[in-house]
Design goal:
InterPro entries: CheY-like_superfamily, OmpR/PhoB-type_DNA-bd, Sig_transdc_resp-reg_receiver, WalR-like, WH-like_DNA-bd_sf. The chain is of the alpha/beta class. 38% of the residues lie in helices and 21% in strands. It has 8 helices and 12 strands. The strands form 3 sheets. It has a 5-stranded parallel beta sheet, sandwiched between helices. Strands 6-7-8-9 form a 4-stranded antiparallel beta sheet, with helices on one face. A 3-stranded antiparallel beta sheet has the order 10-12-11. A hairpin with a 2-residue loop joins β8 and β9.
C-alpha cells in the first residue's frame, strides 16, 4: 500500500454535514476533497485532476443528478471504490447501487465508527487487489476455469459467464462467488466469508453480505445456486448440466 494519507472524495451537497464529516475523516488520517454535486465529483475524478482517490463517499441525494446515475458514471470512469450513503433502507435500492458498481453502502442515520469501518474495509480490499493477489496458483501458473453446471468462473481474468454469456460482477461479488465455488457443497460460516472477502471481523458487515448474496442470485439468475444455511452461513449448490 502506498504511504501517506488516503485521498477520499466526499460527494455531499449539505455543507454542514460535509464540514463535520471532513473534520472527522481528516482526524482519522484521510485527505478529504469535497464535491457538492455529481458534476463536481466527476470533474474531480478526471485523470488530470491530481493523485488518484482511494475511496469515493457518495451521498445519493444530490441536487443536479440522480445519485445512482452518478455512481454508474464514476464506475465507467475509474475503479476507485465507491461507498454509497443512502436514506433508502430497502434492499432493492441497495442491490441497484451494487449492480451499478458501488462497493458498499451505509444507510442514514449511521454511526461514524460504522462509516470508518466500511471505508477502511474497502481501502484494504482494494490495496489487496494487485496482480499478485488472489487464489494460489498452480506450479505452472495456470488456473483451470471453475465449472459449475452452466456457470464458468475464470479466476485469473475475474470473469464469470452463464451458458456462455458474460455476467458483470463487482469486485466483492466476484470474490464472494469464487470463495464459495472453490468448495461446492461446503458451508461457509458468515464470519469466515466476511473475514476472507471483506478482510475484517467487524460484525456490521453482515448486512452487506446479505445484500451481496441477493445481488449475486439476481445477476446469475440462479436463485438456488447459493443456499442459505440458517444460523450458520452459505454454501454453493453445484447445479446439474
Amino acid at each position: 500500500m502506498a504511504e501517506g494519507p488516503v485521498r477520499l472524495l466526499l460527494v455531499e451537497d449539505d455543507n454542514h454535514v460535509a464540514a463535520a464529516l471532513s473534520a472527522m475523516l481528516s482526524k482519522h488520517g484521510f485527505e478529504v476533497t469535497h464535491a457538492r454535486s455529481g458534476e463536481e465529483a466527476l470533474q474531480a475524478l478526471l485523470p488530470d485532476s491530481g493523485a488518484p482517490f482511494g475511496v469515493v463517499l457518495l451521498d445519493l441525494g444530490l441536487p443536479d443528478q440522480d445519485g445512482f446515475e452518478v455512481c454508474g458514471k464514476i464506475r465507467k470512469r475509474t475503479a476507485t471504490p465507491v461507498i454509497m450513503v443512502t436514506a433508502r433502507a430497502d434492499v432493492r435500492s441497495r442491490i441497484h447501487g451494487l449492480n451499478l458498481g458501488a462497493d458498499d453502502y451505509v444507510v442514514k442515520p449511521y454511526d461514524t465508527m460504522e462509516l470508518l469501518a466500511r471505508i477502511h474495509a474497502v481501502s484494504r480490499r482494494t490495496a489487496a487487489h494487485d496482480p499478485g493477489h488472489g487464489p494460489e496458483e498452480s506450479p505452472d501458473g495456470f488456473h483451470p476455469p471453475l465449472r459449475l453446471g452452466p456457470v464458468t468462473i475464470e479466476l485469473p481474468t475475474r470473469q464469470v459467464s452463464v451458458n456462455g454469456t458474460t455476467v458483470s460482477l463487482t469486485r466483492k461479488e466476484f470474490d464472494l462467488l469464487a470463495l464459495l465455488a472453490q468448495r461446492p457443497g461446503v458451508v461457509f460460516r458468515r464470519e469466515q466469508i466476511i473475514s476472507e472477502v471483506w478482510r475484517t471481523s467487524w460484525e456490521g458487515t453482515g448486512r452487506t453480505l446479505e445484500v451481496h448474496i441477493a445481488s449475486l442470485r439476481s445477476k446469475l439468475r440462479m436463485p438456488a445456486l447459493i443456499e442459505t444455511v440458517r444460523g450458520v452461513g452459505y454454501r454453493l449448490v453445484a447445479p446439474v448440466g
